[in-house]
Write a structure and sequence with these properties.
heterodimer, A: alpha/beta, six-stranded mixed beta sheet, globular, B: MetI-like fold, 2 domains, 12 helices, binds adenosine-5'-triphosphate, binds magnesium ion
């Protein structure tokens, strides 16, 4: 593996194979995710991007019949070992979903819920401070500051998604996983989120699944291309788009950019 | 083309007829009850106890009315946490396997059992001397050591068992209607499963759960068989008098009484009363309670869509 710049590695996936029941979804996946960078997973539909993403915070544990072999290390420690505390793992590895999924509660409560669960009963001023900081980090604060007590479901789709990002930030994760966060959004909301991601990578490590190669080329530092459950090519973004090595990647890029 | 049109028209007319007959029947019953019953209803009817003899002057439905409310309260109080706990288990924890399927089948069967069967079961169980503290012991009969097995407590618990399958199923549906995306969102931010259930799922399903409970209450209010067997056939309260004094409440609960439904039976020609007017008066009050409950469910059902 050749990397254009050397950052320290935060997640390391080793020889991962995964199955849904009898159906194999991932074969022999090896990939390192660098700290404070944006890694994009791309590839045609059904090739296993979401599956790998959901392995990284063990959300696939919830799927009946899912199993895997191989290992995933976070900060050098296996996240798959039996005695690994899944709740603590998910605090370190946050997730934002394709469909914005705020709770049917007020904006304030949406933000307060993870704080209260993870840090116990914090004082009201502290809570408000955390909420304000993270809403600002998700560049949503100005739009909602005077209606924190109205239902989160009344926000626009783009605002809801930024709320979900802000909510994921409240628990200070190290890594945030994004599964096609912009696919349900209009171009302007998408731009806002892309700008935000570029900001967030100062503090967090970001892994993003996207179907939009323009998006990947705009924001990602590293790209991994999936095909039928395997990673067929991974490289830094510049190299990947200017000089793809495999035929599959070349075809995929040209079909998407033409 | 024409044939299709005729078929369409026929279908419309038939379904219109069917629903008109239903509506007419429902309205007819309510209007009939109103006609027969409304003359009875005044403050005296609602606040007097049923007369002991045939002095029709001071005949009222106070104790049956209170009995209905008491039973509903006890039954709901017992059934609700029990049903909600079971529903949470079924919807959030139970894996899909033979054991849970058997469990579900059991619940389905129980919900189809006629209430008179639940009633004899309740009577049998609560006649056990070990459970005598819920009613009273049969005294003064030689060689008999068993509980009386009839009281508000016994009847309330039996009512709870009767509505349990229904409330479990409706609560479970309410929980299942909460989209999985909420569960995932919560778990993905490091929340424990229990926190997810109490802070995200239950609040979201709240209106559905309340609706389930109110519908369960309706079943208790309308039941007669369980009252008949496990509350006994006394129109008045049989505990220490006056039954309404706060320090006598335990005695009232451990003794027998009546409800609107058993009162109606007594007053009807089938019972001993031959006081049809009173039966209709009580029936009218019963209908009004049911209508109020229905309005309440409409209110909660209406706001059941998530997040309103
Ligand atoms: N819960 C599941 N149960 C069974 N099979 C699944 C499940 N989720 C995904 N799969 C299968 O695993 C394979 C990989 O799916 P995955 O969702 O990871 O693809 P993806 O790359 O994210 O696709 P998309 O771009 O459409 O989101 C697919 O063939 C899919 O049908
Ligand atoms: Mg996907």
């Amino acid at each position: 593996m050749v990397y254009s710049n050397s950052g320290s590695i935060i997640i390391s996936v080793k020889e991962l194979n995964a199955w849904y029941g009898e159906k194999k979804a991932l074969s022999n996946i090896n990939i390192d995710i660098k700290k404070n960078s944006i890694t994009a997973f791309i590839g045609p539909s059904g090739c296993g991007k979401t599956t790998l993403l959901r392995c990284l915070n063990r959300m696939n544990d919830l799927v009946d019949g899912f199993r895997l072999t191989g290992d995933i290390l976070l900060d050098g420690e296996s996240i798959l070992s039996k005695n690994r505390d899944v709740i603590e793992l998910r605090r370190k590895v946050g997730m934002v979903f394709q469909q914005p999924n705020p709770f049917p509660k007020t904006i304030f409560e949406n933000m307060a819920l993870p704080v209260k669960e993870n840090f116990g009963n914090v004082r009201r001023e502290k809570l408000e401070e955390i909420i304000e900081t993270n809403l600002k980090a998700a560049s949503l604060y100005e739009e909602v500051e005077d209606r924190l007590d109205s239902s989160a479901l009344r926000l626009s789709g783009g605002q809801q998604q930024r709320l979900c990002i802000a909510r994921a930030l409240t628990i200070n994760p190290e890594v945030i996983l994004f599964d096609e966060p912009c696919s349900a959004l209009d171009p302007i909301s998408t731009m806002k989120i892309e700008d935000m991601l570029m900001e967030l990578k100062q503090k967090y490590t970001i892994v993003i699944v996207t179907h939009n190669l323009h998006q990947a080329s705009r924001i990602a530092d590293e790209v991994a291309m999936f095909y039928e459950g395997q990673i067929v090519e991974q490289a830094s973004t510049d190299v990947f788009f200017s000089n793809p090595k495999t035929q599959l990647a070349q075809d995929y890029i040209s079909s998407k950019f033409s | 083309m024409n044939k299709k049109k005729i078929r369409d028209l026929m279908g419309e007319v038939m379904s219109w007829l069917a629903s008109s007959i239903t509506i007419a029947a429902c309205l007819g019953i309510i209007i009939y009850l109103f006609n027969m019953g409304h003359a009875q209803i005044d403050i005296g009817f609602l606040t007097n106890e049923p007369a002991t003899t045939l002095e029709t002057e001071k005949n009222g439905i106070l104790t049956p009315l209170v009995g209905t409310l008491l039973l509903t309260f006890i039954g709901t109080l017992v059934a609700f946490p029990w049903a909600l706990g079971t529903a949470i288990y079924l919807s959030e924890y139970a894996k899909r396997n033979n054991l849970t399927e058997t469990f579900r089948l059991g619940i389905d069967v129980l919900s189809g059992v006629p209430t008179i069967v639940v009633a004899i079961f309740g009577l049998a169980v609560f006649s056990n001397p070990a459970l005598g503290f819920l009613s009273s012991m049969v005294e003064g009969v030689q060689d008999v050591n068993r509980a009386f097995g009839r009281s508000f407590l016994v009847s309330g618990i039996t009512m709870a068992v009767m509505i349990l399958p229904f409330v479990i199923k409706t609560c479970e549906e309410a929980l299942k209607s909460v989209p999985d995306t909420y569960r995932e969102a919560s778990l993905a931010m490091g929340a424990s499963k229990w926190y997810t259930i109490t802070k995200v799922i239950l609040p979201t399903a709240k209106n559905g759960i309340i609706t389930a409970v109110i519908l369960g209450m309706g079943r208790i209010i309308g039941d007669t068989a369980i009252v008949w067997l496990t509350l006994g056939g006394t129109l008045r309260m049989t505990g220490v008098q006056p039954w309404w004094r706060p320090d006598n409440w335990l005695s009232t609960l451990k003794n027998t009484g009546s409800t609107l439904t058993s009162y109606i039976y007594f007053m009807s020609p089938a019972g001993e009363g031959h006081q049809n007017e009173n039966a209709f008066g009580a029936a009218f009050v019963l209908i009004i309670i049911i209508i109020l409950l229905n309005l309440l469910t409409d209110f909660f059902m209406g706001s059941k869509e998530i997040g309103k």
